[in-house]
Amino acid sequence: MLRPVINEANVSQPERAVQRRRNDLKSTRFSYADFAKQLAQEPLSTGAIAPSSQLLARQVVQQAALSEAKTVVELGPGTGVFTEQIIKRLSHDASFFAIELNPTFVEATKNRCPTARVYHDAATSLPEYLQKNDRLHADCIVSSLPWTIFDEEEQDQILNAISDSLKPGGVFISIIYLGAKFRSRGRYFISKLPAHFSLVKSTPTVWRNLPPSQVYRCIK
Ligand SMILES: C[S@@+](CC[C@H](N)C(=O)[O-])C[C@H]1O[C@@H](n2cnc3c(N)ncnc32)[C@H](O)[C@@H]1O
Questions:
Q1: Whose CA is nearest to atom 27 of ligand 1?
Q2: Distance from the CA of 204 to the center of ligand 1, in angstroms?
Q3: pTM of full prediction above 0.85
Q4: Of 59, 69, 111, 201, which residue is 20 to 30 A from 84 by alpha carbon distance?
């Protein structure tokens, strides 16, 4: 079949801008196949079967109230789906960085969000990176860490690092996959939240995500 010939001169400027943006996205976004490859190579830390959906990302940033925040941290950004939405909503004087364990995902997030600072390290090193960024505390910490792959001791270590790093009144946002509630490690994580935060709330399940997920909003 012959492809229609597009005469560049007949394409309006906004259409060309949209096309350019689409091409940019094609080259900077991690595909489902790339994600599946990471899952096969790093099954013990990837913890998901696909990148998060845009709908879940919007729920996350909505819960995070980012426009007021001066220091925002993301843990386990993966392919940068949340990072992209977070950065769009930060005020001009806010500081942001992310910590990611898998070097391939570090690169994926940097490619997608070239202005983001992404450190290749474990979430437990969060206090060190706050110090490195001349910050005593974070206003908001967003996590898509796969809690059910961490044992109870690891969960306690990460939760301690998060609650110690948040300022009083600071917000911790975490996604929890629906299936996690049926697993003892998922239940352990949810049961520990009230020990660290004065207020714990969750959204209804976001079904348009693989797997379906809830967003937990916790206030220190
Ligand atoms: C469920 S995936 C994140 C999916 C992400 N929202 C996206 O859309 O691509 C969990 C991420 O946490 C990272 N991770 C796992 N353990 C970690 C740890 N201890 N510290 C930092 N990142 C970790 C994984 O490498 C992975 O990128």
A1: 78
A2: 22
A3: yes
A4: 201
